[in-house]
Design brief:
Helix 7 packs across helix 8. With 227 residues, the protein is α/β, with parallel strands linked by helices.
Length: 227
């Protein structure tokens, strides 16, 4: 599966968006998750990480992002518009009703749903109208089997989501589910790098944040969700 893929894949998670910070209030305001705007912190993260990419990876030749607007932010700021391709194969894991419905309404319609998440585990859990992490890996496998990322001579860039970053790491490195569960979800506007090693990949950088120490720490004191 991986034999034709590029010599290097650079992956960033999108910057902080409103749904990361206050998903419930965003729903009340009628803001769709797909079009969730960046927060002021996210705008800073976008600019810092984009500058880092321009400086550290000047040979990026292919760029992909999901159909969610927040994944467009870093590649646009980095000037990749002419090489950028949008694909739903990189879309965020759909959490179904959890993404579209207020928490209290979900629990009223589906009593015990939170207990079901704990019972089956986050990787396997599939919400009503949603998908599991295995479904995300299926989409990413389709991407890796395509020609969208270029060839052995290419340095490719992907702008995606948190869970997609975890799943891509597992697929590229051949890691186990136990490994997957031990990894932290990449932070907003973080950079991960996968370098070809024979027929597979080594993860040579993971969840590195170029903006660390450059943003007021008090602005970052919140739960970092997986959206």
């Amino acid at each position: 599966m991986l034999a034709h893929l590029p010599k290097r894949i650079v992956y960033t998670r999108h910057p902080e968006c409103l749904h990361n910070v206050d998903h419930q209030n965003a729903l009340r305001e009628g803001i769709e998750n797909r079009n969730s705007p960046l927060t002021p912190v996210g705008e800073l993260q976008r600019d810092i990480t984009a500058s880092y990419l321009q400086r550290e990876f000047p040979d990026i030749a292919v760029a992909l992002c999901s159909t969610f607007s927040r994944t467009h932010a870093i590649p646009h700021a980095a000037g990749y518009q002419s090489i950028l391709r949008e694909t739903p194969l990189l879309d965020e894991r759909s959490m179904g009703v959890w993404h579209t419905t207020l928490r209290e309404d979900v629990l009223a319609r589906y009593p015990g749903e939170e207990d079901r998440i704990k019972e089956v585990g986050y990787y396997a859990y599939q919400a009503p109208e949603g998908e599991s992490c295995a479904s995300v890996e299926h989409r990413l496998t389709e991407l890796l089997n395509s020609e969208m990322l270029g060839d052995l001579n290419t340095v490719a860039y992907i702008s995606g989501h948190g869970i997609s970053g975890l799943c891509l790491r597992r697929l590229l490195t051949g890691a186990s589910l136990e490994d997957w569960h031990s990894w932290k979800t990449p932070r907003n506007a973080s950079v991960s790098v996968f370098d070809r090693d024979g027929d597979g990949y080594l993860c040579t950088m993971y969840d590195s944040v170029p903006w660390e120490g450059m943003i007021d720490p008090s602005l970052l004191k919140r739960k970092n969700t997986t959206a």
